[in-house]
Amino acid sequence: MTKTHSILVSIAIILIAALFFFIIVSEHGLVDLVFLKQEREKLVKKNERLNQKNLSISIEIDRLKHDPEYIENVARKELGMIGEDEVILKPQIHQESKK
Hints:
With 99 residues, the protein is an all-alpha fold. The protein has a domain at 36-81. The protein is built from three helices and no strands. The chain is rod-shaped, with a radius of gyration of 36 Å.
């Protein structure tokens, strides 16, 4: 092997090593790719949670529009309402007087 040939091989090896280093740590390299994949996975999971929440809200809206029993149930639980023919009875609590 001649001296020129070995210098060219050394330069080629250094260039290949530099290229691999650039591919790994550059702005659009493998490190960035791994980070972007992790970020994408987080966004996909968040999107799934939001889709589930939207679906449950959509179902509740539909029930509030079309299900009188559900509307009555919500009115009783959340608003404390009673029916027209109902009466609320509150027991009186007697406190014993101190002697």
